[in-house]
Every structure is written in structure tokens, then in C-alpha cells.
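wait is this the right file?? whatever heres the structure
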């Protein structure tokens, strides 16, 4: 089994789509380890604030299989792939880490570069895995957040109640 961390974000019907994403992830992979949920401003475009979080899973699927499952979940939640890269999202789910992979794996850079750029990825990972080492680095997720986290990006913890009926 491989431990995989996933970044979830939404700025369209945010609570509904994050809940639906979590429910679909749980149906596909089983138990989830979830970070707190944070609100952050849109990055790269003017738009509504996002809800962001990390969910960790255990899987026997390859990285490419996981990515395909995530795309299917996004599509089921109305993800529009025709717009620009930085645009509003019903649901965005990205693989941040895949086991201890560091470097290119199946055509994907691991850990995902957003870990080192965006507070809404780094802080939730530090929340769930403070002592776990960042793949390819000699520091933990908490140390990464403390030393290199993008503290200019404002995050606000929000109350989030999981709704398994959506």
C-alpha cells in the first residue's frame, strides 16, 4: 500500500463540492485522514475565496490510476477543463505526495511543486503529518511550513462539518 496525500480545493459551492469530493474519495479508496479546512484567496486570478484541505489515502493503485480516479471525481462534480488554468473550480483534487517518491514519477513531479509555493497545501500537510519527512528533503512537513511556508498567503481556518449524504 502507498500513502498518498491529496489537495482538495473549491470556490464554487465550496462546502457542497468539498463534501462530495471527500465522499467520492472515501468510496474509491476507503478511510481518509483529513486536515482542517482553510479558506484562502484565489491564486492567479480574481475570484471567490477557496476552501482547501488535504486528505490522505492508502492505495494499491499506481499514480496514473489515482490521477484518473481524481479526474473522474472532478468531472462528476462539474469540473470545467475548457477555461484557463487559473480559474474558478467546482472541485480540484491534486496528488501532492505519492509515498516517498521524489522527482518525476509517471510524468508527474513529486512532491507536487505547489507544496513549496502555496500555504494552502503546506499548512494542512503540516497539520496531519508534522513529523513525517518531505519526500526528497531533509526536513519534516512542519519544518517545511515553519521555514519555507508562504506565510504571505493568508489562510483562515473554517468550521467544516462532513456531510456524507451529499
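ok assuming it is, sequence goes like this
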Amino acid at each position: 500500500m502507498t500513502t498518498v496525500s491529496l489537495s482538495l480545493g473549491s470556490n464554487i459551492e465550496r462546502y457542497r463540492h468539498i463534501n462530495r469530493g471527500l465522499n467520492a474519495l472515501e468510496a474509491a479508496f476507503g478511510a481518509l485522514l483529513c486536515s482542517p479546512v482553510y479558506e484562502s484567496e484565489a491564486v492567479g486570478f480574481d475570484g471567490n475565496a477557496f476552501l482547501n484541505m488535504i486528505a490522505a489515502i492508502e492505495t494499491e493503485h499506481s499514480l496514473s490510476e489515482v490521477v484518473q480516479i481524481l479526474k473522474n471525481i472532478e468531472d462528476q462534480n462539474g469540473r470545467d477543463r475548457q477555461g484557463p488554468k487559473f480559474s474558478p473550480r467546482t472541485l480540484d483534487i491534486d496528488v501532492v505526495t505519492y509515498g516517498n517518491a521524489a522527482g518525476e514519477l509517471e510524468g508527474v513531479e513529486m512532491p507536487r511543486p505547489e507544496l513549496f509555493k502555496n500555504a494552502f497545501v503546506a499548512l494542512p500537510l503540516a497539520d496531519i503529518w508534522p513529523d513525517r519527512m518531505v519526500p526528497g528533503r531533509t526536513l519534516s512537513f512542519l519544518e517545511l511550513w515553519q521555514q519555507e511556508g508562504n506565510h504571505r498567503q493568508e489562510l483562515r481556518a473554517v468550521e467544516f462539518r462532513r456531510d456524507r449524504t451529499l
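The radius of gyration is 15 Å. so i think its the right one actually
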